[in-house]
Each structure stands twice: as structure tokens, then as C-alpha cells.
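Q: A reviewer asked whether we had any structural model of the full assembly, not just the individual parts. We don't, so I'm hoping you can provide one. Inputs are below.
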Amino acid sequence: MTGPGSATDPADVTRPGGLAGGTAAEVDLALPAEEGGGRGREVVRRLRRSPSAVLGLVLVGLFVLVGVFAPLLAPYSPTFVDLTDIRPGDFPGPSREHLLGVDNLGRDVFSRILYGARYSLVIGVVSVLIGASAGTVLGLLAGAFGGWVDGVVMRLVDIMLAVPSLLAAIGIAALLGRSLTSVMIAIGVVNVPIFARLLRGAMLSQRESDYALAATSLGVKRWRVTLQHVFPNSLAPVIVQGTLALATAIIDAAGLAFLGLGAQDPRIPEWGRMLADAQLYLASEPLLALWPGLAIMISVLGFYLFGEALREALDPKLRR
Amino acid sequence: MLRFAVRRLLLLVPILLGLSVLVFLFVRALPGGPETALLGERATPERLAEVRETYGLNRPLPQQYLTYMGNVLQGDLGVSPTTRQPVRDEIARRFPATIELATTAVVFAVGVGIPLGFVAARRPGSWVDNASTVGSLLGISIPVFALGYLLKYVFAVKLGWLPSSGRESPTSFADHPTGFYVLDGLLTGNPSASWDALKHLVLPGIALGTIPLAFITRITRAAVLEVSNEDYVRTAEAKGLERSVVSRRHVLRNAMLPVTTVIGLQTGLLLSGAVLTESVFAFNGMGSFLASAVFDRDYAVLQGGVLFLAVVFVLVNLLVDLAYGVIDPRVRTR
Amino acid sequence: MRMHLRRRGLVAVGLAGVMALTACGGSDDSGTGASGDGEAGGTLVFGASADPVTLDPAYVSDGESLRVIRQVFEGLVTTEEGGTEVVPALAEEWENSEDGLEWTFSLRDGVTFHDGEPFDAEAVCANFDRWYGFTGLQQSSSVSYYYQTVFGGYENNESEDLSDPLYESCTAQDETTAVIRLTSPSASFLTGLTLPSFSIASPKALEEGNADQVSGNADEPRFEGTFGQEPVGTGPFEFESWEVGNRLVLSRFEDYWGEPAKLERLVFRPIAEGPARAQALQAGEIQAYDGVDPADVERLRGEGFEILERPAFNVGYIGFNVDVAPLDNLQIRQAIAHAINREALLQANYPEGSEVATQFMPPELFGHADDVPTYDYDPDRARQLIAESGVSNPTLDFWYPTDVTRPYMPDPAANFQAMQADLEAVGFTVNPNSAPWRPDYLAAAQAGSAPVHLLGWNGDFADPDNFVGTFFRTKQPAWGTLPDEIYTQLEEARTEADLDRRAELYQAANRAIMEFLPGVPYVHNKSFLVTAEGVSGLVPSPVSNEVFQNVTVSG
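A: Here is a predicted structure for the entire assembly that you could use as a starting point for your response.
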């Protein structure tokens, strides 16, 4: 529950990731270390059996491949302008030369969509890395030290969570100026409290686990137990949340682009921006809005399905 | 239960204090400081000095903070330079809009999501189940503003069934004593005004409610499936109880716990979605108001509005927690 | 400079026309244009692109404020419906003295303000004296831009940049005769008075509404009084209510001196985005709007909406700050001009009927020169010029605005990207910079910190000074330092009395300007209004002087 100060309550379920939604990654899904190599195999086996995991992985893989190899795949430069056949409100539609037609500047939409995967990939990964790493540090501090450190960190997290996240992201992005970097920082920052709270919760429950208690009773130093056993074993929910946060980061970046916060260079084929730009020609060329919209949906769906499947695969409760 | 509520309420105090400090410092961290925020970027030195004097900006920060909080506690949030109205009045005018919108979204999400998830779970593999699975996946992955445009294009522009923007028809001259337009129509004995306001809520409500709907459907389905596999349910069915009775008495009730959690979480998130939804539908609420305050650099509105929303936000969360306590007695005993 | 004025109109009557008119007074009725055949009554909802800034006519220059002000207020004179000729409004006739210094206006009898106060010569003089007596921030060109354009300065000029006032005094000879004395003869005075800024407001309401209280700063003035929110004039519609962001409501003024308005209510609903306005029109929520996107013109026409067209009395240009390298280099500026494919841009992004600009003023205006140096699209020539310039790897900080469409640039980002592609094709490096139109973009452009920027201008007057004069008559940070010759030529042209000589001077100035090339003008564009079926009586005006007096709605 998002109720502040309630992280130790059993009712405390971590907040779903991201601005527009996301899902609750439960805190108690870390697997004990004893399973060792068997754990990874078990997870892979379970993932392979789940059709949604496979679909998710295929979509994510496709997205990453397209992003990485866009220059090789794209038939045209995404920024090549050709106004020859453009008339107000009338742009050539899909054809053999231009699979998805051209936009208001005569640029090849297909190439722009392919290149757009690059930007979404970078925005998603970087912002999630920012959010996850800063959140992990905070969560680790809180979870490892407990006491007043925990109190301070968790109050900070509560405060950050008290501002609607898209609004916070808009504020940060507007303050830092229009650039993709500020978008990534803004989305990263609003993800920080989510990761911090998640990791802390997982560490608390790990610390209560048998092996941790056993290690402590055997005389292993507390910090050693924390760093070598409790922390690594608490990372599973962070990884799951990271995958899900990638999905929401892509949606959020699109939302910010829609509100006019994004790259300075209007040529950058960022999907959210393409979608926002296409609104101007929605009535006459609705397909222009369809393609980036579909691209966003497909990539978000991929990360979402994969993240969900990953969570289920890692969930010890579901092992039967 | 009361002790639980009081304890949770007390825990809000440090959070709100911390937030007020954060917002206070945010405005002071801006290039040029709060006097620039008040006057704009190219104010004359004389005017700046004047404002510093009037607003006590040359006093030590802690003292300034106390003055500011003193004003806030008295309900004085300053005056918006953009609209030239007291921020408090602006909030009072726009907040009801967002509440109406969020309520519509929640009603839509819960009203459709729980029955859908329930039916899907009780008939796994049926077309209802498959459709709800696919639908909720799509609902989760579509950007809310894209969905908003799609709804608007189809239902307002092409079909002409519903209005495309605003809270009431521009030719309606109904009175608005409370600012809740649907309610106002009923209070003033003008049901057609209520009907008009309701029609304006449908499309934005659906756009905003779709993500919560997707999550609620999924969680309901999962929870009902899990409960259905519990021994007591199987026992109940085995001993010949009517399936519908089992559904009502055992399954639904026990499945509501995680569902309530998700409803609560999603309600909090609605405020974020409202920023985009309100922008798409030119719906004059808090979300679009604060978003444009960011772009207009209207710091008076930003400062007051964010603080206000945060209070609402944590109170909503508190209510959800309390509701949780009602459903699950274990929570409040700890 | 106030280039962000939405759709200011022109007064396309030449000076000769003004002179001819001064002696003859006018006919009785200013509104003799097409009147609707629908029933009286009903409500029309007009889709505006924004809320007005304020409704005090003296303080505004943006189109959305002026649009509302034109319904609520009237001036002494106005332009004929659908045209540009000066016709009577609150003054029935007027006369100019031999020496050209004294203007005697005979006022309409039996006119009352919306607050019941009588309209008389005292009221006229109170308004003129109010403008003349502006102090402090009121003297900023962002507040009283039009007053400065017509009258130059104030009773006590607080800045050296202001010129001597043209206005001297106003005397109420009797109830219906107001005599205005000028400090020098002026041919543009009467034409200037057609601007809505010179509307006569109720002196009592001005006083009670604290209309003269202005705070803030020049970039973002704040009008503290209530007059701007509850305006009181003599127009066919009176103010009813205004909810920022939602709607502004006017209602028919029953005691109007002329034929009362047909509509019972006129509602302005702000909808920022062009596509959203189009949707609201199609969904039937609004019955008319201004600023139709070029992409929507043919489509809306095809769906049975009526498109009303205004002539292209504006200019869109790429502005340079010539003090900043590499723009201080003439060959670089010429290379830019040769690199841009203006024809292709217009064909792709502008409606039919828009014209490629060769200079900073539209061809309809006297002083337009046919023999200015031109810079045709010629990438090879551009490359050659860059090579000759000696600038290696020339880099341009190119600015474009966001969140805005202008009559001269319907989609600024598209213009920018097309130009960027053209420039890069000949070897320029282009750094894109963007900012929201108001206040950041305009502030950057006007301060000269946007070395290459997209801007434009909508004409207010059929006077060249309103185009090239505003840009280049005095040194401005936006453009940097131009040759002195241009400044002096334009100043001389402005004060020249002889029309033919004046035209020649402006032609010479235009040649000099295009020789020096402080920017690249590229378009004169049309703008469009649209109305739904059943709406009639709305007549597009070349000066955007559209009064809804005779508009009717049916169904």
C-alpha cells in the first residue's frame, strides 16, 4: 500500500512502478541462496513454459534488435527531407518505396519508426538505470542500517511518493530544460522511491529468513551477512521491477514528449514526439499517428509480459 | 480501529512537513529565486528590492519558511500571476473537476473490472477470459493520451455521440454552487445540466479509467482463481453448495483483499494520468492546471497546488489503508 | 518589437485614400455589409485559440483580446465591413484643419455605455487624455504598443527611446463635438484610429475598475484593476462573464445606438490546438473558429463548412543577428538565402495562394520594390558563397518556437526542419534550439540571443512603416547593427509627406535592406476562418475587424 510509514506492515505492498501504472512487484519473491545454480535453471525452465514470457521475450528481443541495428535495417535516413510530393494535409501513403508512407516533411515513416526504437531503448534503459541505482543505494542504506537511517530514507521516499509522479517528472524536466537527458533524469528520479522501497522491503524479509538468522547465530558479522547474503538475495524484485519500469518509462517519455518536453532537435524520431506531431494531421493522415502508437504499444507490451512472467517465475509461492 | 487510524494520521504529519520544506526549497532553488518567480525574469532592480521587502525575502530562510507556512495554514496560498486570482480560489474551482473525473474513472474501472475479472476466472479459457486478458494487456500498454485522442476521434468527431472537450456545453448557463457539475445540476433542480456534465465525463473518464480497469481485471481474475483453488472453496463446492452462493460468500469476499489494494494504488495514480487526460479533453481540472503552471512558470500555483495535491494524495492513501483494515482485521491488530 | 501579435490586420487604404476621406465624412451606418438571413436570437460559440490577455483596449495587441474587444467597444472611426476604408463609428463625421493640426469630430448622439453612462465629447477626451498620460509600465511597448505606433510618445516620456508625442490636447467643444490637436500634421492619424486600441471606454468604469494599475514587468505586465476583466464600452455586445480556460460570454446590448445585434449571446471558447478546434467544430460544440490549419482547409470545405479567406497581409522570415559570427559575414547570409528552397516549403506546408516573399513587406503595399536583389534557390551558389566567405565549417544556432501557430507559419517545427535540411545540404552545421513561444522564445529573439530565428509579422496598417519601419528604422538587439544608411532612409521615409516620394524612399530602403540581407523573408500567407452550416453574416475583414453584429445562427 502506498500508505506512508507503513513499509513494515504486512499490508504494505510496494507501489506499482512508473507514472501511468505498472504492477505491484511483491516483496517476498526472492529465492534463498541455498538453491544456488538450481535457481537459474528453474527460472529459465519456468519462463520457457510460459507462453506470455516467450511472447514478451520475442517482442523485447525484436525491439532491442531493431534499436541496435536500425541503421542497417532502415531503407532511408530518418531525417532525410523531401518535400516534392508533399501538399498541405496530403502526404503520400504506404507504397513499395515507403512501406508506412511519409510524414509532413516527406521523411520515410518506416525508417523513423525503426530508428525510434533506438531512442526509446536508450531513454528506457538509462532512466531505469538512474532510478534503479539511486533507489538501490537508498534501499540498501535503509535495509542495511535500519534505525534512524531507515527512518530518514523511508520518510524521504514517502515524501517523494506524495507528489503525483507525472507532475514531478514534468517539473524536473521543465527545470532542467528541454533535452532527452532531462527526460531521462526526470523519469529516473520518479522511479527512485519505488526501487528504494522495494529493495528495503525485500531485505527486511530476507533478514528474517532462516539462512540469515542461521548465519548470524553462527557468528558471521552482521554487515557481512547483509552484503553477501541478504542484499544479493533481495535483488530479484528489483530486477523484475526494472523490467516493468522499462515499460512505463517508454510510456512516460511519450507522455512528456506529448506535453512538449523532449529533445531540442525536432528531427529526432522519438516515438512519443512522432505521435504528438501527428496530432496536427490526425484528421487528414490518421495513419501517421497509428504507427508510432503501435510501436509504443508493442514495446511496452513486450517488457510488461516479460516482466510479469519473470516475476511469476521467480515467485517461490508459485512453485508447485 | 480508531487507534490504527489515529496512528496513521499522525504519521502523515512529518511527511507533509517534509514536503512543504521540499516545495519551499524548490522555488528558492530556481534561478533568480522566488522574487523572480513572483515578478518574472526581467524585473527592474527596484521592483525586486521592493518585493523582497514586502515578502520578507531578505530574512533568514527558516523565518521565511515559518511565515510561508503560517500563511498556508491560514489558507493563504498567494495569488496566481497568470490568472490574477487567489491560488486558493483557483484550486477550489478546478479540484472538483478532477474529483469528478477521477470518480468516473474509478467507477468505470471497478464497475467493469471486477465483474469481468470474476467471470473470466470462473470460466477460465472461455472467450470472456481470453478477451479480457488481451484487452487488459492492450489497456496497459496504450499511452493514455493516444487512447484519449482515439476515443475523441471515434465517439465525438466521427459518431458525434459525445462531446469532445470541456466540462459542460459552452451554451449551458447552469449555476455551479459546489463546483461539482453533476451534483450542481441536481441541487439546483436542473437535471439536464447534470446530464450535460455527465456526458462530458464519459470519454475522459474512460480514457483515464482504462489502465486501472486493466489492472483491476487482471488482479480480480488472479485473486478469484487463487481463492477458488483454496481447500475451503473446494470443500464448499464438494458438499454441494450452489456455485453462485460459493462465489458470493467465499470467493468474492476473500478475493477482494488484493483487489482493494490495487484499487487504492490505482486511485493514487489517477492524479498522474489526469494531467494528460485533462490536456487531451481540455478538461479544466487540477492536472492540466498544474501542468500549464509548470510551463507558465506560475510558481505560486505550483507551490500551492503541489502541496494541496500531496495532502489529498496521502489522505486518499490513508483512506485506502483504513478500508484495508476493515476488510482484513489482521492489519489493524499489529 | 511586438511580433507575436496574432493576426493584426491591415488598413489597406493608402495615404491618398485617407486624405480623400478626411473631408467627406461618412454615411450613417457602419454596418451595411451582408446581414444574415437567419432569425434573431440564439447563441454562437466561437473557438478562440486562447483566452484574451485583458479586455482593456488600451493595453492589448494580441488577436484574441482584440477579437473580443471589437464586440464590446467602438472607436471614433472604424473600417468598413469586409474592407479597409475608414468609415464612421462613434463619430458621425470629421474635419481636418488647413494646417493639418486640428481634427474636429462630430459625435453620434444618444449613445450610452453598457453601464448606462452617456457617451459624449467629455468621455472621448477622457480616453485620449488617459492614453496620453500613461506612466511607468503603461509606457512599455508591450503594454501600449498601438498607442506608441500611432502617437509616438506620452505627456511625460520616461524613456529616451520614445519619440515626441503626436497628441497635444483634446477639447470637448460641446456635448457632441470633440477637437483633437496634434503637434504635427499626420496622414496616418485617422487610419490609426480605426485600431481597436483607440476604443472609447466608459470613463466611470475605467475609474472604478482601477484600469490604470499595472504591475509586473514589461515582459509580463500584470493588470491589477478589474476593468480589464469587466470591460464597459458602447459596442453591440456587452460583457457577461469570463471563466479563464473555459469560456467568455458576451450578450446583446439592448440599448445599442444602431440596430441591436442579432445574436442573443456570443461565447468565446479557448481551444489551443488547431486540430482540437476542428474537432470541436465537427462535433458541433463550436460554430466557427479562426486560424484554420492549411491541412484542414480543403477537408473542412469538403465536409460542408464554409471557409472565409483573408488576404495575405503578413510576412514570415528567418531573422539574423548580424553582430554574431558567422552571420556578420555577408556571403554567409547570402549562402543561407540561396540554400533555402522556399517554393518547395510553401507548396508543402502552406495553403494555395500563399506567395514567396522577396522582401519584408507584402506586394499590395506601396513602397514594395520589384527590383530588390533576389536570392533564388541555388545550392551550388550557396556552397560557392560559403567557400568564398572564408568561414570554415559555418555553424548556425537556429531557433524555432514551440506551442504556437502563426498565420505566416502554421507549423514552425516543420519550417525549421525543412530549412535545416536545406542548410545542411550545402554544408552548414545547424544547432537546433527551441523554446515555448511566450515568453521564452520571443524574449530570446528580441534580446538578440537567438542568432538565427523564425519569426514574422502581421500588418496592422497599410503603411510600410508598419513593416520595414518596425524592423529596421531603429537599431534593435534582435537584428544587430545595420548600415546607418538604412536607419536614416527609413526615418526619412516615415516623415516624408509626399506620397510618391515616400514610396520611392521605401523602395530604395527595401533594395538596401535586401542587399544587406539582415534576414530572409520567405512567405506572405493567407489566413482562414471557418463557420458551420447555419451561420451567416460573418464577413472576413482584411484587418481582422470582424464584428458579430449581423451574424445569425439557425437550427
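A: Points you may want to mention in the reply: The mean pLDDT of chain B is 80. Chain B touches chain A through 62 residues (CB under 8 Å).
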